[in-house]
Design a protein that fits this description.
Mean pLDDT: 85
Distance between the termini: 16 Å
Number of strands: 0
Helix content: 40-55%
Structural class: mainly alpha
Low-confidence stretches: none
Shape: elongated
Radius of gyration: 13 Å
Strand content: under 5%
């Protein structure tokens, strides 16, 4: 996840002592897959992987 907002929030979090993780769900951003094939269940699996 390399968008300007994500990078800005990551920088803010680091500056203020917060941890942060950035990732793209399947079908979003630079991740593989088609957005229309995504489901909440699949995105949950992405988070847990």
């Amino acid at each position: 996840m390399d968008g300007t907002k994500a990078i800005a929030v990551d920088s803010w979090a680091e500056h203020n002592g917060f941890g942060m993780i950035r990732f793209d769900y399947s079908g979003h951003g630079q991740s593989s897959g088609a957005f229309l094939d995504g489901t909440i269940g699949q995105w949950k699996k992405d988070c847990l992987a």
